Amino acid sequence: MRFTLLTGAVLLVSAQANAAIEQQLTQCAGITDKLERLVCYDNLAASIQVTTVTNNTTAPIAVAPVVTPAAAPAAVATAAPVAVAAAATNVEDNFGMEVKRVQENTTDKIYLDVESIAEDAYGALKITFTNDQIWKQTENRKFNLKVGEKVFIEKAALGSFLMGTESRNAKVRVKRLK
Question: Which of 20, 115, 129, 141 falls 20 to 30 Å from 84 in CA-CA distance?
Fold first, then answer.
């Protein structure tokens, strides 16, 4: 008898909670602005609490979500304009600076010691460095380099790289093999 009453109460509460949730979902769906609609859904999800009821003879029974009445629409009315204004300000502040911020966090130049040098059939250098990186010359001009010499590799235009030494003003275009 007690189990039947408990089950009936659970079904009654869940039907009422589902009706309230459906009503608030329809209100959120009616909002045309994407950000405001998302804030409405987030507030609705935050206001739902799942509780469990334990019975002496059975395992815990999940009860329908408890919804605070009209909490989501009121929260949307106050939080949405603030969120939209903050997002617009953030977008305006970052506009045109995305690439610069990415570049600030990267290294533009590294220094390496030459471990070995090999030439291919066309005279292009294949350089192995002490850190096991292997780079290959991509230009057809002569570039003198010695084992043990310290060189730098720096970023150039369009994602390419230049290799040179501090002792002379010559650079050659290279690409990384390994």
Answer: 20
Burial environment of residue 72 by CB neighbours within 10 A (0 to 12, 13 to 18, 19 or more): buried
Strands (E), 40-143: 48-49, 52-53, 61-62, 66-67, 109-119, 125-129, 134-137
Bridge partners (DSSP) of residue 175 are: 136
- DSSP E strands in 1-93: the ranges are 48-49, 52-53, 61-62, 66-67
The one-letter amino acid code at 151 reads V
Q: What is the pLDDT of residues 29-66, one digit of tens each?
A: 889 888 888 888 888 888 776 544 444 555 555 555 55
- Ramachandran quadrant class, 142 (left: phi over 0; alpha: psi -120 to 50; beta: rest): beta
User: Residue 140, Cβ neighbours under 10 Å: how many?
Assistant: 9
Q: What is the pLDDT of residues 90-127, one digit of tens each?
A: 677 777 766 666 666 677 889 999 999 999 888 889 99
What's the DSSP call for residue 123?
S
Spatial separation of the C-alpha atoms in residues 172 and 153, rounded to whole Å: 10
What pTM value is reported for the model?
0.43
Burial 105-132 (b: 16+ CB within 10 A, else e): eeeeeeebebeeeeeeeeebbebbbeee
